[in-house]
Amino acid sequence: MDVTEVLLPGVGLRYEFTNHRGERVGVVARRTGDFELVVYGSEDPDEGRPLIELNNEEADAVAEILGAPRIAERFADLTKEVPGLASGQVEVRAGSAFDGRPLGDTRARTRTGASIVAVVRGDEVIASPTPQELLLGGDVLVVIGTHEGIGGVEQIIRG
């Protein structure tokens, strides 16, 4: 799918694409941090009809909801395309050394070369977690790296 990026001077950026039904859809990312979802009518292709406005927090929530089911699928696809790259899952057990501690305390990427790209907590997916993200017992870490790197992350987390 082709997404076009258009600079809107003084406003922000507009991302446009045509959906499977032939409708032009736009997302306006305002300099204020707010977002607007618009649809363009066939009568005037330059006039967008606003559908919804979202603040930054709401936009993050929608992105997480829409992206959550696809994260593991996309990483699986990526590992097929790049020889030597694999994805894995590592569970943080309740009461383990990292239960209740920040992700950064693991130093996983530095120690293994593998990256923790998401934390799955129940039905919630925390994509691109920061080093400050607290790990909790029951969390599942989505890890990308070599098989050895993923095994190394598992050894670190399981102690």
TrEMBL record:
PROSITE patterns: RCK_C. Residues 73-159 form the RCK C-terminal domain. GO terms for biological process: potassium ion transport. Pfam families: KhtT_N (PF25991), TrkA_C (PF02080). The lineage of its organism: Bacteria, Bacillati, Actinomycetota, Actinomycetes, Kitasatosporales. This is RCK C-terminal domain-containing protein. GO terms for molecular function: monoatomic cation transmembrane transporter activity. InterPro entries: AAE_transporter, KhtT, KhtT-like_N, RCK_C, RCK_C_sf.
